Structure formats: structure tokens, C-alpha cells
Amino acid sequence: MRINKSDFTWPPCKAWTSRDPINGFRHFVAINYGGKEKFRWVHMVSVLNGEIRFNILWQEMLNSRKWTIGWLRVPKTDSIALPSKRSNNKFLKNSSSRICLHPSLDSGLIIPLESTNYRGWF
């Protein structure tokens, strides 16, 4: 699937794959977002481990060498390698205390559903 820059619309879709593992994981959900212009940010949470969460600037997610929209299949060799408790990953350092874990109103993840306008997964 080839993705064009125009596919990266704001607000961000929910499903993302990191080209490189982040603390052993590659599939993430954008649960919340905010900011304006070059200061736009996204709160990401691992699909398989909710403890893996971080903030990332939208500009970084636009880099197709690092991120792609959707959940891509990854080779088994790139599957989860259990990380150590002490991570050197730049995304995870000191970020969990600043992460907003409530989903955005347009996420479709809030029960009861209060809106009919939701961000897409892809």
C-alpha cells in the first residue's frame, strides 16, 4: 500500500505502524491529539501493551521512513522481543507521567457513544 503525503490528514487516523520497534512493539493506536500547526502532538499507545505509551509530534509521524498509516504485517523476526524494564527509548523516557490516557471525543472508544463523527482507523 503506497501512502501519499495527502493521506496524512489532521486529525490523525487511529491505527499506526512504526517502521522500527519501540520498546519491542510496532503497532500503535493514536488515542488523543492536540496542538496547532508545527506544535501538533499525538498520544500513542501500543496495541499489545497499554503500558507502552508516549507523546510524539505530528511532524515526526509524517516521516514515512518512521511511520505508516494502518497496521502492517511484520516479519516474525521483527516480532516482540521482551524489553528490559529500563528502556533507553527516547519516546518512553519520562513520558508516561505526561500521557493523557483518555481518548479523544472523536475516537469512537468512549462508552456510551456520544457522537456519530469518528476518526477512521486508517
Instruction: Please tell me the total number of domains.
Output: 1
Structural class: mainly beta
Poorly predicted ranges: 84-88
Number of strands: 5
Average pLDDT level: 78
**Could you tell me the radius of gyration in angstroms?**
14 Å
Determine the fraction of residues in helical runs and give it as a percent range: under 10%
Query: How many DSSP H or I helices?
Result: 1
Oligomeric nature of the chains:
single chain
Strand content: 25-35%
> End-to-end distance, in Å?
12 Å
- Element-by-element helix/strand order: EEEEHE
Q: Give the overall silhouette.
A: globular
**Biggest β-sheet: strands ordered side by side in the sheet:** 4-3-2-1-5
* Biggest beta-sheet profile: 5 strands, antiparallel
